[in-house]
Amino acid sequence: MAKYQAPDFFDVDGELSEEERMVRDAVRDWVSDRWMPVVEHAYREGSFPKELIPELAELGVLGGNLDYGDFPRLGAVAYGLVMQELERGDSGLRSFVSVQGALVMYPIWRYGSDEQKDAWLPKLHSGEAIGCFGLTEPDHGSDPGGMETKAVRDGDDVVLNGAKMWITNGSVADVAIVWAKLDGEIRGFVVPTNTPGFSAPEQRGKHSLRASVTSELVLQDVRLPASAMLPGAKGLGGPLGCLNQARYGIAWGVVGAAQACFDEVRNYGLNRTQFDKPLASFQLYQAKLVESLSEITKAQLMNLRMGRLKEAGTLTPFQVSMAKRNACHDALEIARRCRDQLGANGVADEYQTMRHMCNLESVKTYEGTHDIHTLILGRQITGLSAFS
Ligand code: TGC
Ligand code: FAD
Question: Domain 238-382 falls in which CATH fold?
Fold first, then answer.
């Protein structure tokens, strides 16, 4: 495989601090050296290479942006670059880190008690514990407000009953953040997965995101002390506040996947000959490369601006929706175009493009589908809701 050359047509690099470049390069090198040799095997097997978790933790990327203890406190742009480099390796790798940081550590950090923070954040940062985030249910995906999972008070305890579906890391998690209605109000619960009544059967048979564990969560009379509830989260705004963090990471991440496809196809076009000339010498082939690089560049620039707004504390959820929607759509189109440019080789696992293409179908779907972000933005632009 040719050495990876990240496309950067508008010199985004020149806008980064030395520290941001160092963080980016450390993750880029780790992905090249440690992840790329194992990813195809993991994807074929349908498993996440858990043995690499300590190395990920060593890189400081698990919740590394949170202001807690001796965490590295990565800035928003540095954190985004980490996501970009991880997803260059595979969306499943970025998903693992996103869920752990943005969907498990973030809610504990933002909404949790000091006891919850001290019990879980250090272990999750060091990779000693793995977490998952249970919002989606079999009958409530885009409309999580309709969830049926219930919490009922019983003396000093709460008892949870219900089911979650499509939960990343579910079967390998030590702790689950479970969202459930208590007296009709959505609340978050920190559930150790060894609690009696909790189970997480793995969902097999995915054509996408195969190097990532996806599971149901089944909660049957799961009894917890009332202190397991996140005190600072009340209503749908609780989980949605976490999704803002994860969607931010996805907008950056999918650029990495698109960059990987582009890099692969540019090399391929320069090296494969048809009609006695390199493929890359044909106008149609070049037009496709230009289209892909233009879309990558636009997404890179939007992400950089988004990151700077986040650092300034002025980023809105609507800006995050636009970036997530735009980047996922474009990355998937780029992956499909690149797959076409590889001809028959594009369906072989010797090349990575089709793996990215299949993954991006999930990434476009989770954390709010393309259409849901369209409706979120449509409501923001017009003041009129088209959800129902
Ligand atoms: P709506 O009336 O809009 O809002 C209800 C309350 O929530 C507040 N809110 C937000 N707060 C923070 N951030 C946001 N982005 C927020 N959006 C809304 C809102 O202010 C309101 O608060 P309050 O105090 O007034 O009650 O609610 P709605 O029911 O009309 O619809 C909301 C809708 C459709 C936009 C939302 O439900 C949505 O985003 N649906 C998509 C669901 C989704 O994204 N699920 C993701 C599951 S997790 C996942 O996929 C992980 S993949 C991980 C991986 O592997 O990487
Ligand atoms: P639905 O909501 O049933 O939507 C189906 C289609 O209808 C979509 O095209 C949608 O855009 C469209 N639609 C829905 N409502 C409207 C409307 N009002 N107007 C017009 N069109 C509409 N969830 C978690 O909680 N935690 C996780 O860790 C997690 N990981 C995931 C990992 C993978 C690999 C996948 C695929 C999903 C994961 N999810 C997770 C679930 C994900 O967030 C949901 O799949 C997503 O929110 C969409 O919900 P749904 O699949 O039920 O689709």
Answer: Butyryl-CoA Dehydrogenase, subunit A; domain 3 (1.20.140)
